[in-house]
Amino acid sequence: KNEFIKNVTISKKYGYKIYLNIEEYKVICFDKNINKLYLENGKKVDNIYNITDSPILVNDIGNLYDEFINFS
Predict the structure, then answer these.
(1) Are strands 36-39 and 27-31 parallel, antiparallel or unpaired?
(2) Which among 21, 23, 39, 72 could bridge 7 via Cys, Cβ 3.0 to 4.6 Å?
(3) Whole-angstrom distance, CA of residue 60 vs CA of residue 39
(4) Among 56, 51, 60, 62, which residue's Cα sits nearest to residue 25?
């Protein structure tokens, strides 16, 4: 189980080929304070894949977290 995976669809074609269609949650930003990624579903996950091409959050957003996730 991977927290980045949103949905997986498996299909079989030509009797022997198997196709996987993987849909992932988008990364909203990287929180530099806690070293975690914010995903579009509201989860905070470890940056185990070293994703660096997302906006970097440098300040603590505290109680604005829910509004921030819903706005993104």
Answers:
(1) antiparallel
(2) 23
(3) 17
(4) 51
Which of helix, strand or coil describes residue 37? strand
Label residues 19-39 b or e (16+ Cβ within 10 Å = b). eeeeeebebbbbbeeeebbbb
Half-sphere exposure of 70 (CA within 13 A, CB side): 4
pTM over 0.85: no
Helix (H, G, I), strand (E, B) or coil at 54: coil
CA atoms within 13 A on the CB side of 34: 12
Q: Write out pLDDT tens, residues 41-55.
A: 888 899 888 888 888
- Residue 63 and residue 69: Cα distance in Å, rounded? 11
